[in-house]
## 1
Amino acid sequence: MAYHDPFLLGPLGRMLELPSPDAEGMDAQYERIAGEHRSIRGFTTVDMLAVKRVWSFPLSHRLAEDSHALIARWAAPLTTETLRLVDPLVPNRLSLDVSTCGGSTGLAVEQYVSAGAQPTRIKPDTRPAALDGLLDGAYRWSPNTPARDWWLNFGLPTPVTEGEQIVFRGWVRGDSTSVEPFITELDAADDDTTTLIDSPITLSSTWQEFSVSVTVAAGTVCVLAGLHVESGSAGRVVDLMGPQLGPSADLPAGKWCPGGGAPAVVIADFSHAYSRLGRSTMTIVVREQ
Amino acid sequence: MQEAENSALAAAVASSVRRPIWRVLIDWNDDGVLGTAPLEIIGDDYIEDIEVSRALSGGVGAGASLVSGAAGGQATVTLSGVYQGRSLATAMSPLASDPIFGTDPVLGRWARVEMGMVTEDGPVYLPQITGTVRSIDLRGGKVVLTIADPSDGLHAPITLPYWARGNYDPPRWTKLNYPYYCRTQWLIDYALRRNGYGAPLHPGAIFSATFHGSHIAEIGTVYATNIENSELVPPLAEFDDWWVPGPHGFVAPRGSWSTRVSRVPWTFGIADVIGLGSYPVGVGVSLWYYAGTNHVSSSNNDVRYLTALKYGPGVDDEIEVTLAANGALNFGIGGDGYTFQSTQNTAGNEIGWHYAGVFVMIPASGRITLAWRFDTAANTATIPRPSFPSQPREYSWVHVDHCVPISDVQWWLSDAPPAGPGDWPGYGYDGSDIGHMDLGVNVISKLPERIGVDSWDFVQEVAAAEAGAVGFDEEGRPFFLDRRTLTAGTETVEKVVTSTRDLATLDVTLSTDTIRNVAEVKTVSGRQYGSENATAIFSAVSADQFDTPANTTRDFVVWQEPFTHPHYYENSLPYYDTATWDTVDNKRGITWGFSCVRPDTNAEISNVTVDASPAGPRRMQVRVRNPNNFAVRLATTDGKPALRLYGYPILDDAPKVARIEKPSSIEVYGERSLDLGGGDWDQDYDSCVELADSLLDELRRPVPVLPAIDVVGDPRVQLGDTLEIRSPGGVAESIKASVVEITRRASREGLRDTYGVRPILADDGVEDPDPPTEDPPGPEPTARPYFDEADWHWDPIPEDPVLDSNSSSISNLLTSTSGGANRILNVVRYGNTLRGPDGIDGSTPRYTVAAEYAGSWGPAFPSGATIPIPAGTQNFIPPGDSKEWRDSHVAIADPIDNRVYSMWIATYSSSGGGTWSCGWGGTAKMLGDGSSPLADGREYIGGSTGAGISRYACVVRIEELEEGEIPHALFFSTDIARSGSSNFVYPATKTDGSNMAGVPKNSTIMEGQRVQLNPDLDPDDYGLNQAEKAIMVALQRYGAYCGDNGGTRMAFLCELAPDWGGNKNNPGSRYAAVGITSDYYNLSKIPWRIGGVPQLRVLKKWDGSA
């Protein structure tokens, strides 16, 4: 995908390509949720709670009947499925918080660790040049059971489309152990179909960029990405910074793009305007969860 | 302030752009873990807003700007959102289909609200309130949870055990130097334990004492003996205080290494344990003890006792836990001295608190099974059976000796040893501090009666009694802060809030409403003491009361007055034959013994044995053993009942009253009273005075009142924190204040706090006088050694008594000097010779005293009465004796007859071997026994004074003047006593008033009327000598009764001093030493009038009532 690519909306496996907006284009706003305190002498303290995006899609082109029905169903809502929006303007489809290793909210981010050891968020002393000045958060992972493999997944399953060239990038360092970046493809039934594991990377105290790419196979609706550590000695340390997952063309090596390209959303507003018989203009307002 | 040292958190809170966070954790499935399924952590997905309110309320009363009272808290959490495809409200409704919690409303589950900040180091959550879910409100598609702090669930009924330090003390009248009175910590812990806090009791517990601020047992009855300062040897060099830090955040008694070294019953505590039953018997004991430096370094194996249980009749029949000076901890079964565990406790060689427990299973026969635990080490064994008694004793008891600090002592019965570490009492539970528990400043010597009261009400009451603070902290742990902590805590500023950065509002009001500068403290110890004076406690009422058949032992239970020492009955009662009994018959009440006859022949029987022993607080068991082949009767041959017992009455300690004031404040604002409100918790004089003084120090100045202030939220700020509030150029440059109320809101508006604060004033350098440190003026503990039922004689005059309608005119004459009227002391010529009860016993010569006017006026003494008059008793008889013109009073307090005999014109003649006679006299009862007549100082036979008041009452004694204090009312005669036989009032029984001065009737005083000198005058202002001052104070406090006709306006009756030398003008050296140098001593220095205004007033009734 690229800037000229369409937005995708829907649950994993049934994402709908939204038509091109009208000539006026579409709006994407950043909504700040915050409280302000003002002291007697006027000093302002801001309690930042969240920043959420809101997309407004004015669609004057006629939708296919089934697409219209789907959107109406999601807006009702007549489904409990989580809707995802793929924003072509943000190529890194990991969430913003995952891509910054929790730096955007300061909170712990969901990671899924097969053996139960949760990573710890750290502030590294040195950063890869590509990240210097952009973010300073990293995860430190200390696999502590030597007799088994460790798998660290990042974030929610990320929506992809058939035939897409997807890459998982990031920077790692550690203490003489090795890690294997991987991408796992999942079908609509949430079953693993293929796991592509890159060659092991031997870690050192210097940051190294890694990448693993895959061309999305037929039947794959989403992917998970992460790191795998073979069984080995206890007390190994793996640090990870700046993970990215998205179209290979938009995520070149040596660069970093913050995440947020495939957020979970709700349809906040869905309206029709009937300009003439048989012709309507529809507006969908989508709010990031 | 929570996490005060966390600099990252401090920076995050202070940042101009902050990231506040919050969450709610609930133990939904009631497994003791917060944050469990199905809603592990309720976070931003669901929370709309949270409001947490915590406040410290109550304390010393409205207007008092002190940090004290009880902390209560509540949180309201509003939730919304979708849970598994349904609205959260629908999912949580027990009335909806398939609710996530089933039909269980999940009320009462543990819950915690946390708030915090995202910091450089990540998110930091701090607890704001931990309690239980009180309500779930489902409305408008939202869920509103109410979470209340644990005080909401503190409602188990509290009944205090009976405990009073002092009931078993020997006779004494000074304050005991007993260091282990009950403290507030014990009371609060007692209530908490009844609500599930702390180590649970073993289900078979027969004795339990926590020692958390008291020796009072939870199960059993601890009474302490020999715990006086002088008798305790500090066991450990590292402890200076009597109460030392104990395990789990409580205090523990320091103990004494001077505790017993053998199996002599030298104990700190005894618990009656009724019936260990028959073998097999399983007994366990557990405790925490402190091994100190002495026990690590010493090679001395000198052994002291920690605790023991007596199981058999022999001295050695004990199960014991002992500690040697070298740290060796031993468990032993006494018996023949067998010790089954003497291995040195290795854990005991580590300085600090240690757990010890042992269980002994004694089978009907065969080897004994043991199980024991030292800290983490446990073991079992079997040992040979020592020579046990055939059965355990029916009545057993536990000793607790605590040679070192000791805590959480339990003895229990069980069929089996504890199965695992968690089954050892006091060991298996979470040993961390239960919370913050101060010792408290109140000193309680007797637990007041509380039966079935609400726990939370009770906890608040005992904390308020010493102006402490009680409640539960943010983590749901209880706390009790006494004034020392509360005051010390205000010295450190935890947070600075300024109008520049934080404050959204700041208003200040200054008012005198909060000023308090005077407090009246009245302490009632509730203690009781044994009288030093023996008295009759029982006399047989009929001859056949104790008839005992042939060859029979009979037990009788008799009721008597309470006594203190049953030891006098350890031996059998002495026997007297009738002839002897008759000679001691009049010694009723002081002697003890019996006489015995055979009813059918009236022959005297001497081989009967009579024993008496206590059978309860007011009961005696009398056992008559008759070895004869005929019935016997405890009577004399002339049919008089003949059994008597005596003992020592228990008397109440008298209240103490003190006035604490801050003159610097009174001078400016006038008197403003602080009501301590401690009620029956105000028991110890010193601690109450200290408390009142510290409170007045804080309240004596106007305190700025700050309404609630709105500030930027800070999740670290807690109740009791000290803030510095700055508003440069505004209404307050800088104020220190304590936070007593917090409302903390988390919502889309961010994190906001509203504080209620109480300002803390800086030291202004004013130094008021120290509070009274010695016992204040007031009624000393008084034994009422005579006329103990005469309240009119012993009670002080109450404040603002109701006056006689003629008080002014009577007072005008009583204080007048017109016509030479004056006020004098009758010391010699009309002095009163007093004897007894001291110095009168069975050897004192007794006389049958003839009363000359008895034929005309009636008997003066009981028929046949003999009066004991010590040899050498002298009274004033003028030269050329003319009986008509002298009084020559002699009054005798006879402890044997329990009577006071008063003789007027008493005369001794040596003829006939010595005789005494008198003009007339009267008889009063000396000490009350619950029967009529009362021992109220009024004569029930005859009348030795015009008013019928005993000559022995109201007399100024020389000893009293020497001590500088007269503890009773005075007696005066006057020339303006109202005439008319019916013109007298209580306590007079009659009158001889004749208005000798001939003044108008409305200016005469009735016999029996009480007068009082202005109590507001300061006796130090008039240059009085010791005697004059004592008399003036007595006239202010107790007043004086008009009791007789006399030629002087007011003549106060004094004792003729025992050292009087026979000179009518010289009262003797003892009187001279206190300033009374002549008879008829003129009391002109006493301010009867000031500026011509009479300072006496005449009461309408003796007790000041209307």
## 2
Amino acid sequence: MDHDADSYRRFLEGDDRAFDEIVESLFFRLVYFVNGYLHDYHAAEDVALDAISDLFVNKKRYNFKVSLKTYLFMLGKSLALNYLKHNGIIESVPLPEDASPDETELEELNLADERSRAINAALDELPDDMKEAIRLVYFEEMRCEEAAKVMNKSKKQVYNLVFRGKDKLKTILGEEGKEYL
Amino acid sequence: MKEISEYKEEIRKRVAIKETVRRTENRRFFTLAVVMSVMMTLLVGTVVAAAIRGRAPDDGKEGAGTTGIPTKALTRPQETTVSPDMKTIFIRDDELNSYTNMRNIVNDCDLIAVGTVLNVETVVNEKEGDLSEPGNVNSFVTMKILNCISGKCDSDEIVITENGGVLESKKLSVTMDTNRNAVAFNSYVVFLKKDGESGNYVEVSPAQGKTNIRLDGDLFSEGAWKNVEGAEGVRNVSDLNALILEIKEEENGS
């Protein structure tokens, strides 16, 4: 059962606590996800604030056919790409050598366990779309179908990306990393 | 990184701003939609009015048709140019000459022709007594001749003086009840006499000086033409040509 969608339903019925629940559950995940595109914590924060406020303003747009997280990530991705377009950033921005304190904090918040941190560290060596597919499936615990919607790809394509990504990660992580996958 | 409560506050602020912007945009959109629909209504109204007045372009078909004149040269008949708020005064026609026989009309005419009205200019007699008195309001009708049926056409454009006219400044239409004023862009068969003084043509009879060519009707089925002997069999210009030829031949024979 999608608890976030249930909270959103209660929000539409006028339950103000549901607003808090949604923000608490999804905001930092969204910032982390958007930061994967922008590589700029403050920009990612701004885009995520915009995406989540859009969700509360345009009450009829979300149709409950996908999970609320999937919908919000789709919205976040679209706004992030718009941000890149409007700022004239066509090529993906390389990650800075040292992550800012905010980014480190965000990473710790989203990658709470050792498994996630280990996989995340190895992800940088993968191509962008493979990295995104792994993040959505392993970190955000989305099904391939949901990840496909966010990535605007077919379910099969996402499945292949995850399958090949896992293979590569196994190689990168070595023997001890195999147990994480 | 801020506390989650600060982000919640920021999100609430953004939601409030976006809702205000959306309401404003909705109001703007609604206003624009109203303005557009009013403009569209006016535009459609103007087009329909122009079509009713017969100014709409013809269907492009050419051919003699029942009038004997290329139909492209003709325009749809215009019932009136008088706007609804215009008052109509009818010219007294009790003492005016009216024909009861087609032969007499043909014999009295210097020119019988088919033409299209190009321009109408109305003048009021300086004395301007009773406007319903014949001759107090006159119009100079410039007509392009399309077909000369009887008589000699010196020029392809003639000026006809007719009783009545439209006085826009006074919101008045002065007209004969049985022979309404000529309307620009309409086509008529005209029955004319040469006026010695002005050199212009005048209608042979104030009541029967012209008949409107209707693409969908008889030439002499309306107004003062209804009871004219010999006109009842004339449906179009070809019939009229034949009738005039017959009358002329009879005159020459006798």
